Structures are given as C-alpha cells and as structure tokens.
Amino acid sequence: LGEDHPDVASSLNNLARLLKIQGNYDEAKRLYERSLEIRRKSLGEDHPDVANVLHNLALLQRERL
C-alpha cells in the first residue's frame, strides 16, 4: 500500500485509539497526528476522515486535562 496510503492512516487512527484507552497519551497523539498528515495529503482538507482525526485529537486533549 505504501506509507502514505489512506488505509495506513486508518490503521494508525485505530491503534492510536487503543493507546489512548490504555492511557498512553503521548504515543496516541503521535499516531493521530501521523494519521492526520496522511489523510490531509491523500484525501484533502475537507474530507470527513480528516475531520474524524481532528475530533479524535480533541477528545484525546480533553481526556488529558
């Protein structure tokens, strides 16, 4: 698939969610940000999957407070 394929971004997003549940917030943030980078590049800024990752990052930030 290649490291910038949207399916890789989906896998990173799912793994980040698991890490968040486990309390590994720093690593979760890193994977969410990489997923976001891939999705922006491959799908465009206005794609719903980009919004989904932004939402997940916001939830992560809220949980860290």
Q: What does this entry look like structurally?
A:
80% of the residues lie in helices and 0% in strands. Helix 1 runs antiparallel to helix 2 and helix 2 packs antiparallel against helix 3. By secondary structure, the protein is an all-alpha fold.
Can you give the mean pLDDT? 97
Q: Looking at the structure, what is the overall shape?
A: globular
What is the radius of gyration computed over CA atoms, rounded to a whole number of angstroms? 11 Å
Structural class by SSE content: mainly alpha
Strand content: under 5%
Which runs of at least 5 residues are low in confidence (pLDDT < 50)?
none
The string of secondary-structure elements, in order, is HHH
Number of strands: 0
Largest sheet composition: none
> Tally the helices: what do you get?
3
Helix content: over 70%
Task: Give a brief rundown of this model.
The chain has 65 residues and is mostly helical.
Q: What is the topological layout?
A:
Elements: H1 6-21, H2 25-43, H3 48-64
Task: List the main descriptive attributes of the protein structure presented here.
65 residues, mainly alpha, 3 helices, globular
